């Protein structure tokens, strides 16, 4: 009996899900976009994601900002819109997708913020510093100036007196002096 009840509930849930999409993609797009209703439509959440993506690409790729304020503003706008949308709309009465889409959008906004703040921006600053130090090193003048080329003249020390090797060894080697004193 429990198995048959479970199969019936599963079949009804599947039919309800197919019933929402049964009209076809074209009809659903027409309903979501052309006959937009703030209280029942998911299209504005999609547009919020597109706005967020475009704003962040514009700020960080086009204008090459290295500061966190752009991600902070887009996260604040996204979160505020999602909270107001959940409170004022009928999304929660539309089944699991009505719960799932706002929650996933909210979580993704904060994950993007965390990744950008703690991973991407510090790595880009480090790469910029590395590149700048490389550029500065190539533009710096050499520390040692190249002198004139050698013309092949080399100088050697003056000749030493014959038998001077032995005398130098005795003076500089303390053991030899010690041995001679003992004998």
Automatic annotation (TrEMBL):
The keyword Methyltransferase does not apply. The chain crosses the membrane at residues 41-62, 68-88, 95-116. Residues 1-164 form the MENTAL domain. GO terms for molecular function: cholesterol binding. The keyword Transmembrane helix applies. Residues 149-175 are annotated as: Disordered. One of its GO terms (cellular component) is lysosomal membrane. It is found in: Late endosome membrane. GO terms for biological process: cholesterol transport; vesicle tethering to endoplasmic reticulum. It is a multi-pass membrane protein. Keywords: Membrane, Transmembrane, Transmembrane helix. Pfam families: MENTAL (PF10457). Belongs to the STARD3 family. This is MENTAL domain-containing protein. It comes from Pleuronectes platessa.
């Amino acid at each position: 009996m429990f198995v048959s009840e479970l199969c019936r509930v599963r079949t009804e849930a599947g039919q309800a899900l197919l019933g929402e999409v049964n009209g076809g993609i074209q009809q659903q797009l027409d309903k979501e976009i052309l006959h937009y209703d703030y209280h029942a439509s998911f299209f504005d959440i999609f547009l919020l994601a597109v706005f967020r993506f475009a704003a962040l690409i514009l700020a960080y790729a086009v204008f090459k900002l290295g500061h966190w304020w752009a991600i902070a503003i887009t996260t604040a706008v996204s979160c505020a819109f999602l909270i107001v949308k959940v409170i004022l709309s009928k999304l929660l009465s539309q089944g699991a997708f009505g719960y799932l889409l706002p929650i996933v959008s909210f979580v993704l906004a904060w994950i993007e913020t965390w990744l950008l703040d703690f991973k991407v921006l510090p790595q880009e600053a480090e790469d910029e510093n590395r590149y700048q130090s490389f550029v500065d090193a190539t533009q710096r003048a050499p520390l040692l100036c190249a002198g004139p080329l050698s013309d092949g003249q080399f100088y050697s020390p003056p000749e030493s007196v014959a038998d001077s090797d032995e005398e130098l060894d005795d003076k500089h080697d303390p053991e030899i002096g010690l041995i001679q004193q003992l004998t």
